[in-house]
Amino acid sequence: xxxxxxxxxxxxxxxxxxxxxxxxxxxxxxxxxxxxxxxxxxxxxxxxxxxxxxxxxxxxxxxxxxxxxxxxxxxxxxxxxxxxxxxxxxxxxxxxxxxxxxxxxxxxxxxxxxxxxxxxxxxxxxxxxxxxxxxxxxxxxxxxxxxxxxxxxxxxxxxxxxxxxxxxxxxxxxxxxxxxxxxxxxxxxxxxxxxxxxxxxxxx
Length: 204
Prior knowledge:
CATH architecture of the largest domain: 3-Layer(aba) Sandwich
Radius of gyration: 18 Å
CATH topology of the largest domain: Rossmann fold
Strand order of the largest sheet: 3-2-1-4-5
CATH superfamily of the largest domain: HAD superfamily/HAD-like
């Protein structure tokens, strides 16, 4: 069955921002070995979760039992705002993945394109607008939307079968969501992947 709709991940798929987002967590906390170890351990366990989940876990481990839920909520959101400022600024300026704009321009003429990311939706739309990419997408989904739910919503909205949908991404959450709804998945694994996707689309 022919693919009609393509859903792109953002970080690590269209822009080279994964390391930027990773490093930003360390910028929020003191640089001593204890804090570095806690941040590293949490990122190892929760790397594909939202920043809110990651920051909550970091703060819980730093403060152990000395912080109540109300204070924790406040500190999570305060830290998330600082994190967002770092990441949005960086994501606007970091390099796009090789061929990203060319691929979006070409595929948007033949498919309905969507964007789905764990980046907060308002920030994601701001970054996409800054790059002048908003015209390529039918819609843009960010946190708190969950990737599997986004795919189910798109399938319903577009009135397509799962076999007519393809997810493009570099992470486990992209693959898992595609497997859950039983749609196609194309993995971004290296700097040439997007151009390989373009060649693939021309032959299918």
